[in-house]
Amino acid sequence: MEDNERVSGAGLEEVEVDEVEIEELARRGERPPRAKRYVIRVDKEKYTVHSPTITGAQILALAGKTPDKFKLYQHKRGQQPALIGPTDVVDLREPGLERFTTMPKDTTEGRVSAALGLRRDFRLPTTDEEYLDALGLPWETAKDGGSLWLLIHDWKVPSGYKVERVSLAMLIPPQYSDAQIDMVYFKPALARADGQPIRNLSPQMICGDTWQRWSRHRTGQNPWRPGIDDVASHLGLVDEWLRREFGG
């Protein structure tokens, strides 16, 4: 019997193929088959692994990064980014698994210095729009004066806040994606369920509504990476800011 076939009680198992790209299969809505090699994307680079299971630390190592300095996020079609711990085991054959993004742990808080029409007032890069469509959440692009805003609705926030879901806004700079996305804005305003204050907040008018601006920024050790960072990686950073409120 060929090496790529095995006998089970129910008959022959699926044939093992040589190589699969899990991102391409996710976009087609197909579950990855058994394979000798699995091609995965971490940030903007592709890597080949020879096992269907891999830990978070091993994925970081592929990109030359370590868990003490970087966090890893998994992106599955139709879902929000999920934090993957160093010892968490990822099954590369899970349906919908698209890619991974990394985020430096060195982020700090800065100083404080709409209508739901699903508008498309401007276009984002194709990869961003495909990612947003795959989230399965309502989103729109809106021009407000000279500012360009990406609005994502029904975003689920981590536990510990008084609300479970919010609208989320990001200011898109004119030179994006060479220029960075900075900070994040929420509506309704977030508050901790335990009554403790959240630092460095201020109101921001966006498309006629008042949003809550979280003054959070990258640092010199954690710069925006043109060609790597995008809407998806910034959303991973937003998740980090939300969890950091509670020491996560």
Question: Brief overview, please?
Answer:
The protein has four helices and 18 strands. By secondary structure, the chain is α+β, with helices and mostly antiparallel strands. The radius of gyration is 20 Å and the shape is globular.
Could you characterize the architecture of this molecule?
The protein is of the alpha+beta class and 248 residues long. The protein has helices at residues 22-28, 56-62, 126-135, 231-244, and strands spanning 7-8, 11-12, 17-21, 35-42, 45-49, 53-55, 70-76, 82-84, 89-91, 97-104, 108-109, 139-144, 147-156, 165-171, 182-187, 201-206, 209-214, 216-217. Helices cover 15% and strands 37% of the residues. The relative contact order is 0.13. The chain folds into 2 domains: 7-104, Roll (Ubiquitin-like (UB roll)), CATH 3.10.20; 108-244, no CATH class.
What are its keywords?
248 residues, alpha+beta, Ubiquitin-like (UB roll), 2 domains, 6-stranded antiparallel sheet, 3-stranded mixed sheet, 15% helix, disordered N terminus
Structural topology:
Layout: E1 7-8, E2 11-12, E3 17-21, H1 22-28, E4 35-42, E5 45-49, E6 53-55, H2 56-62, E7 70-76, E8 82-84, E9 89-91, E10 97-104, E11 108-109, H3 126-135, E12 139-144, E13 147-156, E14 165-171, E15 182-187, E16 201-206, E17 209-214, E18 216-217, H4 231-244
Parallel strand pairs: 3-4
Antiparallel strand pairs: 1-2, 4-5, 6-9, 7-8, 7-10, 11-18, 12-13, 13-14, 14-15, 15-17, 16-17
